[in-house]
Amino acid sequence: MDEKEKQQIREQVTLRAREAEDRLSPFAAREKDCLRRSDYSYNFYRRGYVRDCEAVINLAQYNRYGGKTQVFSLHANNDISTRASHVGLVSRIARTIGRALNLNCDLIEAIACAHDLGHAPFGHKGEVWLNAAARKYGYTFAHHVQSARYLDHITRSNISLPVIDGVLCHNGEHVLREYAPNELATRTFDDLEKKLERAYRGEITQAELMPATLEGCLVRICDVIAYLGKDRQDADRLGVHPLNDYTDYGAGVLNHKIIRAAGEDIIFNSYGKNAIVLSDNIYAALVNGMRENYAFIYKTESTGITAEQSQRMEKAVEEAFEFVLSDLRAGGKLLDEIYFPYIYANPSSVQAYKKADENAPERVAADFIASMCDDYFLSFYNRYLGRLELKRTDYFD
Fold first, then answer.
1. How many whole angstroms from its chain centre is CA 359?
2. DSSP string, 70-119
3. How many helices and strands (H and E) does the chain possess?
4. Taking Cα atoms as reference points, which of 185, 146, 165, 141 lies closest to residue 52?
5. Per-residue CA distances from 276 to 29, 218, 284 (Å)
6. CA angle, 376 as apex, 372 and 378 as ends, to 5°?
7. How far apart are CA 366 and CA 371, in angstroms?
8. What is the mean pLDDT of the chain?
9. 3-303 CATH, one of 1.10.1040.10, 3.40.50.300, 3.30.70.2580, 1.10.3210.10
10. Residue 355 burial class via C-beta count within 10 angstroms: exposed 0-12, middle 13-18, buried 19 and up
11. d(CA 64, CA 57)
12. Where are the domains of the chain?
């Protein structure tokens, strides 16, 4: 094929991409909104948010989703959810609904794939333990903030602002009836930096954590839709809580029924609007369903870590945090060996990250521990700090 024929194909592919964008909802994100810190030279078929999604799934931390607990820690059972399966489900649900609403599905996929990159090992319990260790030094750890920090500050991978914003604002523990960009939404990188700094101090408000795009708003509610029924089914599979204890508040009890009911509801109530809207009935069903999940799963010992183990793990995370902090204050010899080279393929980005946080070692200590999957943390602790004996429930227990 000669260069003239290749150019004709480039032009046709580019034209079809522009036509597809023209067919999007007037409220959808566009190519022009794909603001980056540095200019990026696109090719003719891999543009905008497609580049972001591919960049995300090639980040080192993306690989560790598979080893991070979603809810049920210390269960050696590949049939229950991990961060990897959760992220894939969020992406699929959000893209299906987003396509029906004529939103930008490439942006949706990029946000969904990146939204939990900052999660600590051992699920939300691990997040609580790491926050407790960091708060002693005036630093607040939250996984959604950490995910945005990882993309923008640690890897410095030139991800676009709408993706980072959607990740920062994805907080899936707060269900709203309506999600719509507001006047406090993040629209510049200066806005982002100010929000992150305030979040590190624990000063960020929920009003400031509304995504600037409808795509980000959609991922936020799909995060809830994805885990609500799946966590129940995982609990039932492990024999820790039966499905027949849950109430059908109108959205169903099982995962597939919740996805269908909530998806249809969002489409019917959001189509043609500059907001992602739930009906009163489905909103109430999700809120009440989450309350049952908290009562039957999240606030019990059925997640795989008993109260006694939880105390031991909180102490272990604190000890690991102090150990890492001491290493950093002494020059970071150990982290130079096992952490910094892992972050990103571009050494200059790693050096920029180290330089920016040289006076805030508590942030880097939290970064390192948050980067670990469950088994990595146990191996790290056992190698450098002692023996942390925790019984892992296997398939036949």
1. 27
2. SS-TTB--TTS-BHHHHHHHHHHHHHHHHHHTT--HHHHHHHHHHTTTTP
3. 18, 2
4. 165
5. 14, 6, 16
6. 115
7. 8
8. 93
9. 1.10.3210.10
10. exposed
11. 11
12. 3-303, 315-384
Instruction: Report how far residue 212's alpha carbon sits from residue 162's, in angstroms, rounded to the nearest whole number.
Output: 7
Which pLDDT tens digits describe the chain residue by residue (397 residues)? 899 999 999 999 999 999 999 999 999 999 999 999 999 888 889 889 999 999 999 999 999 999 999 998 877 778 889 999 999 999 999 999 999 999 999 999 999 999 999 999 999 899 999 999 999 999 999 999 999 999 999 999 999 999 999 999 998 678 999 999 999 999 999 999 999 999 999 999 888 999 999 999 999 999 999 999 999 999 999 888 899 999 999 999 999 999 999 999 999 999 999 999 999 999 999 999 999 999 998 876 667 677 788 889 999 999 999 999 999 999 999 999 999 999 887 888 889 999 999 999 999 999 999 999 999 999 999 999 988 877 677 666 6
Instruction: Look up residue 215 and give its two tokens.
Output: 């795509």
Question: Each residue of 42-81: pLDDT tens digit?
Answer: 888 988 999 999 999 999 999 999 999 999 887 777 888 9
Q: In 3D, which of 384, 338, 372 has the Cα closest to residue 121?
A: 372
**Both structure tokens of 201:** 């101090």
Enter the tokens of residue 13.
Answer: 């592919």
Rounded to whole angstroms, how far apart are CA atoms 226 and 220?
10
For residue 276, give the H/E element and its range.
strand 276-277
> First vs last Cα of the chain: how many Å apart?
61
In Å, what is the CA distance from 235 to each residue of 16, 31, 229, 243, 262? Answer: 46, 42, 10, 8, 22
Strand partners for 179: 276
Three-state SS annotation for 154-212: HCCCCCCHHHHHHHHCCCCCCCCCEECCCCCCCCCHHHHHHHHHHHHCCCCCHHHHCCC
Residue 362 structure tokens: 């508590």
Residues composing the chain: 397
pLDDT on residue 19: 93
The H or E element spanning position 277 is: strand 276-277
